[in-house]
Amino acid sequence: MSGAKLTEAESVVMRCIWNYEKEEIPFLTLIEELKDKYGKDYKRTTVRTFLFDLEAKGYAVVERRGKFSYVKPVVKKDDYKKVKAEEVLDIWFDGSAKKFISALSERISEDEGQKLNKLLDELDAD
User: Where are the membrane-spanning stretches (predicted)?
Assistant: First the structure.
């Protein structure tokens, strides 16, 4: 995966690309999705600039076919989420999953908490 960090705006564009239900998203659909689902009313040139940057960072590729452009993710959403989770864990919780889960305890149901505790206990045993 690319080591380059995404800006907040690039992250929104990538989320839109990843969440599209097909393996590539038409450029014009991307603009519509950014507006409809994320409230981002970007101009075509702005979205194109984001895509140039995402291509340079190795996150997406834009293919032109005839009059239309299509955007494909290069980095998988799950791979990106894993790296981001590890960064948060390392930066804010000294690498401790238990500290991280403790911070989230108000948002986790009792059943989820029990499952997570069991998983963490299994990880500690290894």
Answer: none
Q: Find the distance separating the first CA and the last CA of the chain, reported in whole Å.
A: 27
β-bridge mates for residue 26, sequence order: 70
- Please state the φ and ψ torsions of residue 104, each to the nearest 5 degrees: -95, 5
Q: How far apart are CA 11 and CA 104, in angstroms?
A: 23
* Whole-prediction pTM: 0.79
Neighbours of 56 (CB within 10 A): 11
Can you read off the two tokens belonging to residue 59?
Answer: 């996150």
Surface-to-core class of residue 25, CB atoms within 10 Å of its CB (0-12 exposed, 13-18 middle, 19+ buried): buried
What are the backbone dihedrals phi and psi of residue 119, each rounded to the nearest 5 degrees, phi first? -60, -45
Same structural domain, 82 and 54: no
Range of the domain at 43: 8-73
Q: How far is CA 19 from the centre of its chain?
A: 9
89-113 pLDDT, tens per residue?
Answer: 999 999 887 788 778 777 888 888 7
Structural domain count of the chain: 2
The span from the CA of 63 to the CA of 24, in Å, is: 10
Contact 63, 74 (CB under 8 A): no
